[in-house]
Structures are given as structure tokens and as C-alpha cells.
Amino acid sequence: METLGPGRRLGIWSQGCGLACAGCMSRHTWDPSGGASRTVSSLLGLWREALARGADGLTVSGGEPLDQPTALEALLAGAVRARAEAVAPGGPAAGREIDILLYTGYEEEEVEADAARSAAVRHADVLVTGRFQVAEPTALAWRGSANQRMRPRTARGRARYQEHLARTESGPRLQMVEGDGDVRLYGVPRRGELAALERRLRRAGIALTGASWRP
Predict the structure, then answer these.
(1) CA distance 20 to 28
(2) What is the pLDDT of residues 80-116, one digit of tens each?
(3) Which of 117, 134, 153, 174 makes a 20 to 30 Å CA pair with 107?
(4) By the 8 A CB rule, do 29 and 16 touch?
(5) How far is the C-alpha of 57 from the C-alpha of 50, rounded, in Å?
(6) pTM above 0.70, yes or no
(7) Is the dihedral of CA 41, 43, 44, 48 positive or negative?
(8) Would you tell me how many other CB atoms lie within 10 Å of the CB of residue 41?
(9) Is 133 buried (19+), middle (13-18) or exposed (0-12) by CB count in 10 A?
(10) CB 44 within 8 A of CB 83
């Protein structure tokens, strides 16, 4: 994935979201009984593989990751350890700067007021907070609406993201990947970008069924 954070990244999406923001492009992730169950150890295995292949970072989104705070803390703590091993001398990513970015729809004060959520986010280098507000579009990089805040939490996060905090994007913000019988879109679309994509596909004789951004 190359659309949610700097460089090439491993993306992990959690299943289940009790916030259910209007206009969300990932409604299919709301149902906590949907998706596929994965153990933390299996996800950390994917992360180690990604580090060995040259990943620049890990992005965790959803759904709402902080609706599973205990599992999220275990995942991010393990990701930090795996990164330390990979960037150590002789490791597959020796000497490289690699960050961990976490998205949540909760506000920072809601995170800090909950012990389990607060424990989970301490392992992230950068936190994007705030519910998606469809009426507040933004061109800010890697944010879906103007109210959302990108908050570096570590020295690594500040070093990698300082230049992006106020950076805007004018072009397409989606990456399209063909899956097994479906098409997956990664990124944070600009207002109207999904509708424009559907129009282009229709002109090419392709009709979407089961689009994740429609009820």
C-alpha cells in the first residue's frame, strides 16, 4: 500500500466499528462479526515479512482499531519489537527509519480517558484522530475530513511526519488493487473521487456491485 503514510507500507484493517460515521467509504468494516479472524502472531508474521521486503512503515486502520484495545496493544507492541530487530545491525532493515501509524475515529481526549485505549496507542509513532465528517472535506494529506488531527507521538514520528502535517494533495488519493473476485481501494478519497471513479468505470462498461461506501 502507498496511500496511507509515507512510502510503501503494510496495511492492517480491523473489523468492527461502533462509531459508524456517515459517509464512511468502509461500511463493510462496521460489523464486528464480519471479516476474517486473525491471530496477533499471524499479523506480526506479515509485518516481519514486509520489513524483510523493504516496507517503510505499518498503517493500522479500520473499522475502529481501538474497539479492540487489548489485541491492538499486543499487535503494536509486537510490531515495535519486530521493527527493532529488523533495523538492528545485520537485520533486514538495518539503519532504516520505519514508522507505525494508527488511525482512530476517537478524539484524543476520548483515547486518553480510557486506560485500555491509552495503553494501546503508546506504541504508535503517529496517531490520526477524529470522526470522519463528510461535510468537512479536506485536502490535507492522509486525512479524510478537516477536523481530523495527525499527531506525532515519538521522535521518529515527528521526524517522518513534520513535513506532512500541513501538506495538501491535489491529485487522486486512492490506490486500486485487484483482489480475488473484487477490487480494493486503499487511501482517503477526495470529495467526489469515488463518484468520478464509478462514472469512469460505467463508461468502460463496468458496473460496481456491493460498493463499500453505499448502504
Answers:
(1) 10
(2) 999 999 999 999 999 999 999 999 999 999 999 999 9
(3) 174
(4) yes
(5) 9
(6) yes
(7) positive
(8) 10
(9) middle
(10) no
